[in-house]
Amino acid sequence: METATLDSGLIVANYGRHFLVETPEGRRLICHSRGKKSLGVVGDRVLWQASSDEGTIEKIEARRNLFYRQDEIRTKSFASNLDQVLILIAAEPEFSSSQLSRALIAAEAEHITPIIALNKSDLVEPFERAWEWLLPYRQMHYGVLPLSLKQSDAVDRSELLKLLHGKTTLVLGPSGAGKSTLINLLAPGALAQTGEISQALSSGKHTTTSTTWYWVDAEKTTALIDSPGFQEFGLNHIDPAQLAAYMPDLKPHVSNCKFYNCSHLHEPGCGVISAVKSDASPDSISVNRYKIYSDLFAELSQTRKY
């Protein structure tokens, strides 16, 4: 088959073997993957061939990156060709420090910039507690953005839009954090668009579990990708020996270790262990973050054979 007969497109929604592909002119159509395997993800640039009113994806173009999680059973890809991952958490309900750290590590491993946003700043006491708890993350190069989506605070929205402008951002967040509110606030046609996709597939059951791309601006320079929620975030694809390099509070201290292959768990002269402090000073590692590291190292070591 000649490449000249193929059209280019962007995967903007993923429903298993079915994809919604957007053409450069803005037309959207259902495409199917060729063969039994469904390898495409939202954000992929593809070459497709028309077949009646639908199409077949013939080739997925090279990706800049792929954000995914992996456990013992399967690999779950979120999206590709990302500039950023926005991890949205809230003052209430309480969020998991382990899940937050896992998502940050997955982003670091793929060289994708993470942004942490803490929603519900209108809940004064819970927000203060969460903000204090996030001190180690605020001292890293991520920073943490305060948000109050319920009040549609114009200042919060303006700051967030500045961070998102001209970029493709995957939005992650646990149930109740305000992910749907955020997407509908920044991409007002999002709900209607999801309904249209559902209608095109003659099924409404997929709309809450699929990954979907939304344009924020008419010029189509800024995009948000909404992802399904998750209970677990497996990191089986991460080499435990590389783990400290993906944690910005641990990484600077690795060069102070006596041994080049230090696991940072028990070795004498370990620069990481000596930097663990109960107080959260900017150049130290918090006890909680070190526990996350040691637990993850043990988990990842079990899944690998040396």
Q: Could you list some keywords that capture this structure?
A:
single chain; 306 residues; alpha/beta; OB fold (Dihydrolipoamide Acetyltransferase, E2P); Rossmann fold; five-stranded mixed beta barrel; two-stranded antiparallel sheet
Walk me through this protein's architecture:
It is a single chain. The chain is α/β, with parallel strands linked by helices and 306 residues long. The protein folds into three domains: 3-60, Beta Barrel (OB fold (Dihydrolipoamide Acetyltransferase, E2P)), CATH 2.40.50; 66-226, P-loop containing nucleotide triphosphate hydrolases (Rossmann fold), CATH 3.40.50.300; 240-302, Ribonucleotide Reductase Protein R1, domain 1. It is 26% helix and 26% strand. It has helices at residues 97-109, 124-133, 135-138, 154-164, 179-186, 190-200, 251-254, 271-274, 287-302; strands at 7-15, 18-22, 28-33, 45-51, 54-60, 66-70, 75-80, 84-90, 113-119, 144-146, 168-172, 211-215, 223-226, 276-277, 285-286. A hairpin with a 7-residue loop joins strand 12 and strand 13. The longest helix is centred in the C-terminal third of the chain and has 16 residues, at 287-302. The protein starts with 6 loop residues before the first strand and ends with a helix.
**Cα gyration radius (Å):** 21 Å
The CATH superfamily label of the largest domain reads P-loop containing nucleotide triphosphate hydrolases
Helix content, binned percent: 25-40%
Question: Approximately what portion of the residues adopt beta-strand conformation?
Answer: 25-35%
User: How many β-strand stretches?
Assistant: 15
Span of the ends, CA to CA? 44 Å
Based on the coordinates given, report the CATH architecture of the largest domain: 3-Layer(aba) Sandwich
List the secondary-structure elements in sequence, H or E.
EEEEEEEEHEHHEHEHHEEHHEEH
Indicate the CATH class of the largest domain.
Answer: Alpha Beta
For the report, how would you describe the main beta sheet? 5 strands, mixed, barrel
Number of helices: 9
Number of domains: 3
Strand order of the largest sheet: 1-2-3-5-4
Give the overall average pLDDT: 87
Uncertain segments are 203-208
